[in-house]
Write a structure and sequence with these properties.
The chain is mostly helical. It is built from 17 helices and no strands.
Length: 495
C-alpha cells in the first residue's frame, strides 16, 4: 500500500466526532429551552412535546452514539494498525445522520412522542389527527436508518477492523497487548456479539411497519408487529441492552485509558496494565451476562402482561449488574493507587465519568427493585437515571477524545479549557441527577407540561445546572475554534 497517511485513521472518526458535537449542542439548547418553558409556561403542550421528542433522539443517537462510534473505531484503527475508511464506516456515518435528519423533519411536521418510542403513540397521534400520517412514515424510516447503523453496520465495522484485514505498522500507535491491556478491547465484544441478535426483532418490526406505511404491503400482513406485547418486549430487550452495551464499552474505555496514565508499569517492567487484567475480563463477562436478563425491570409496571417470575428475574439481574460495577471500581482504584496516576484531561474525564456512572447506579438499583419501581417509574427519578447514564458515558468518551485530541485535530488540547469542560460537566451531571431524583421522590411526573407544581424552585435549580453544563460545552467549543487545524502529513510509505 502506497502513501499511507494518518488521515486514513482520522478522517471519518473526526467527522463523526464533530457531527456528534453539533447534535449535542442543538439537543442541549432544546433541553434548556424546555426548562425555560417550565419556568415561564409560555409554550403550548404541542410545542413542548415536539421539543422533548427532538431532545430525546438527538442526545443519545445523533450525539452520544455517534461520538462513541467515531472514537471506538479510531481506537481500534490505531491499536490494530488498520485504516478507518471502508464502506461500512462511510455508510454508518451517512445512515445515522440521514436518519436523524428524517426524524427532525418528522418532528417539524408535528410528530411527537414520549422519550421512548412506545407503541402505539406515533400512530395514535396520526389517527386522532394530531399530526399527519406522513410525519409518522418519515419518523419510522428515520428510526429504521438509525437502527440499521446501531444494530448492524456499527458492530460489523468494529468486527471487521478487529478480526479481519492486514495490520499496517505505519498506523499502529498503541497496542492492546504489551503497552496496553486486553480488557480494554474486551469491552467492545459485548456490543459486537450481543446487540445484533438482540436487536434483530425490533429492526424487523420497524422495517415491516415502515414498509406498510409506504403502502408496499397491506397493514393486515404485519399485524404481528402491531400487537403491543410483540412490540414492547422486543423494544425493551433491545433498548435496555443497548444502554448496557454502551456502558460496558465505556467501562472498557476506562480499562484502556487509566493504564496509559499510570506513573509506573506492572512489577516495575514498564508494561502498563490494570491492577488485575483477569478481574477486568471477568467483570466484563459478569456484567454483560447479568445485564442481558435485567430488561424486565422496565416492565414492572405492566403486571397484566409480565409474569411475576420474569419480574423477579429482572430484579435479581439488575442487582447483579451492581456487582459487576463494583469489581470495576475496585480494579480502577487499585490500579490508580498501586501504580500511581498522572492527572491529565483524559484521565480526569475518565475517572469523573466513572464516578458519575457509579453515583447513578444507586438510583438504578432502586428503579430495578419492584417495590421502588412502582413508586418511582413514572416520575423524574426515571428521567434522572436515563439522563445521568448518558452524561456519564459521554464524559468517559470525552476522556478518550482528549487522549486523541492531538491526533484528531492536529494540536494539543488547552488544559485550562479542558479541565473547565470536564469539571463543569461532572458537577452539572451530579446536580441534575440529585435534583431530578428529589423531584421523583416527591412524585413529580416526568414528561408532564406544565409541571403540576406551584413552587418554581426545582425547575430553577435544573436550569442552573443546565447552564453550568452549557458553560462546560462552550469551553470545549472554544478549543475547536482555535487557529486552523494542522493537516496530518504522510507518516511512512509502505512498499
Amino acid at each position: 500500500m502506497h502513501g499511507l497517511r494518518m488521515e486514513d485513521l482520522t478522517t471519518y472518526p473526526r467527522r463523526m466526532v464533530l457531527t456528534s458535537m453539533l447534535w449535542f449542542y442543538i439537543g442541549g439548547a432544546v433541553g434548556i429551552t424546555m426548562l425555560l418553558l417550565h419556568l415561564t409556561e409560555l409554550s403550548t403542550p404541542q410545542l413542548y412535546y415536539q421539543l422533548m421528542t427532538f431532545h430525546g433522539f438527538a442526545m443519545p443517537f445523533g450525539g452520544l452514539f455517534q461520538l462513541m462510534m467515531g472514537l471506538s473505531l479510531l481506537r481500534v484503527g490505531f491499536c490494530y494498525g488498520k485504516p478507518v475508511k471502508d464502506w461500512l464506516v462511510k455508510l454508518n456515518y451517512i445512515l445515522v445522520n440521514l436518519g436523524m435528519l428524517l426524524i427532525t423533519l418528522a418532528i417539524a411536521m408535528g410528530a411527537r412522542t414520549s422519550y421512548t418510542l412506545m407503541f402505539p403513540l406515533p400512530a395514535a397521534g396520526a389517527f386522532r389527527e394530531l399530526w399527519p400520517l406522513e410525519a409518522v412514515t418519515i419518523l419510522v424510516w428515520g428510526v429504521v436508518l438509525v437502527l440499521v447503523s446501531v444494530i448492524v453496520l456499527y458492530p460489523a465495522a468494529l468486527a471487521r477492523l478487529i478480526f479481519t484485514g492486514k495490520t499496517q505498522e505505519a498506523l499502529v500507535l498503541e497496542k492492546f497487548m504489551g503497552t496496553l491491556n486486553p480488557s480494554g478491547m474486551a469491552g467492545m465484544l459485548p456490543y459486537i456479539f450481543i446487540i445484533p441478535p438482540i436487536g434483530a426483532a425490533i429492526t424487523l418490526a420497524a422495517l415491516a411497519i415502515g414498509t406498510a406505511l409506504l403502502g408496499l404491503v397491506p397493514l393486515s400482513s404485519i399485524g404481528w408487529a402491531l400487537q403491543s406485547l410483540n412490540f414492547n418486549y422486543p423494544f425493551w430487550i433491545f433498548a435496555h441492552n443497548l444502554m448496557e452495551a454502551m456502558g460496558i464499552m465505556a467501562v472498557g474505555t476506562i480499562y484502556w485509558l487509566i493504564p496509559r496514565y499510570t506513573v509506573s508499569g506492572a512489577g516495575g517492567t514498564g508494561v502498563r496494565t490494570l491492577y488485575s487484567e483477569k478481574l477486568g475480563l471477568f467483570a466484563v463477562v459478569f456484567y454483560s451476562t447479568a445485564a442481558i436478563m435485567a430488561f424486565p425491570h422496565h416492565l414492572f409496571t405492566m403486571p397484566t402482561s409480565q409474569p411475576q417470575g420474569l419480574s423477579y428475574t429482572g430484579q435479581v439481574a439488575s442487582w447483579l449488574t451492581g456487582f459487576g460495577a463494583a469489581f470495576s471500581v475496585f480494579n480502577v482504584l487499585a490500579t490508580s493507587y498501586v501504580f500511581g496516576l498522572r492527572l491529565t484531561p483524559a484521565s480526569l474525564a475518565a475517572l469523573l465519568g466513572f464516578g458519575v456512572y457509579i453515583a447513578d447506579g444507586f438510583l438504578a438499583m432502586q428503579l430495578g427493585t419492584i417495590g421502588w419501581a412502582f413508586r418511582l417509574h413514572g416520575t423524574y427519578a426515571a428521567t434522572a437515571h436515563l439522563m445521568t447514564i448518558l452524561l456519564a458515558v459521554t464524559l468517559i468518551w470525552v476522556g478518550a477524545l482528549y487522549h486523541s485530541h492531538q491526533l484528531l485535530f492536529g494540536r494539543p488540547e488547552n488544559r485550562r479549557l479542558a479541565y473547565t469542560h470536564i469539571l463543569t460537566t461532572a458537577v452539572a451531571a451530579l446536580g441534575l441527577l440529585y435534583t431530578m431524583a428529589a423531584m421523583g421522590g416527591l412524585g413529580i411526573p416526568r414528561r408532564a407540561y406544565p409541571l403540576p407544581v406551584t413552587d418554581p424552585t426545582y425547575p430553577a435549580v435544573l436550569l442552573l445546572f443546565a447552564a453550568i453544563l452549557a458553560l462546560g460545552q462552550a469551553a470545549f467549543l472554544i478549543q475547536l475554534l482555535r487557529p486552523k487545524i494542522v493537516k496530518p502529513v504522510a507518516v511512512k510509505t509502505v512498499g
